[in-house]
Amino acid sequence: MLALEIGELLLQLGRGMLAERERDRLTSAQWLALRFFSRANAFSRTLSGLAAYQATTRGTASQTIKLLVERGYLVRKKSPYDGRSSILSPTEKARNRLAADPLATIFNEIDSLSQYKQELLRDILRQLVGQLGGEARRHAVGSCKDCIFLLIRRLKARDGVQVNLLCKCVGLPLHEKDLELLCTSFQAKQVVAHSARVREEGT
Ligand code: SF4
């Protein structure tokens, strides 16, 4: 019964987080997309990236992007990685809007939890997202720092050690400043570690 209760609370939380209020000015789908494009790395800030994140069709994601571009929240640029697609980036107007995110209270509440609780909650949610089945199968997003595809090479240099970062999934170099950004190709290595720790603690 406890599992059911937790599931019901997750549903209640999810529905509450997607609820729209008059003063929010954007729909919940537009907010979701805006948050995604402000947090995602350059490989993921695409039409396909948003569709994968939202588990919607490319058509639905395209409509949301079109509206956000028309309203001056996103700009399109040709992708340097794939000539057939565009990269979407948030504008200053979007950043100003995000500064008054209606979900700021819940994000602050999560931030007030201990580091351990935050990591545990994140890993459990990742596992649960990965279990969602059906046609719209979801893939939990995450960032490079705990992704199995991050390759760190330390090379001897004249003035010390040079650290090179590479993504083994896309085969491209990474910048340190981008390591915390969301990625739709992410695959967690941390979940396994946490599961082992939780088993050891018998919780
Ligand atoms: S290392 Fe992982 S999270 Fe980082 S860009 Fe590559 S696939 Fe994405």
Short description:
By secondary structure, this protein is of the alpha+beta class. The chain is built from eight helices and five strands; from the N terminus they run ααααββαααβββα.
Task: Describe what you observe in this structure.
The chain is of the alpha+beta class and about 200 residues long. About 45% of the residues lie in helices and about 15% in strands. It has two domains: about 25-100, Winged helix-like DNA-binding domain superfamily/Winged helix DNA-binding domain (Arc Repressor Mutant, subunit A), CATH 1.10.10; about 115-200, no CATH class. It has helices at about 1-20, 30-40, 45-55, 60-70, 90-100, 105-110, 115-130, 190-200; strands at about 75-80, 85-90, 150-155, 160-165, 170-175. Strands 3-4-5 form a three-stranded antiparallel sheet, with no helix packed on it. A two-stranded antiparallel ribbon has the order 1-2. β4 (about 160-165) and β5 form a beta hairpin. The radius of gyration is 19 Å and the shape is globular. The model has no long low-confidence stretch (mean pLDDT about 90). The chain binds iron/sulfur cluster. The site of iron/sulfur cluster (SF4) has 13 residues, from loops.
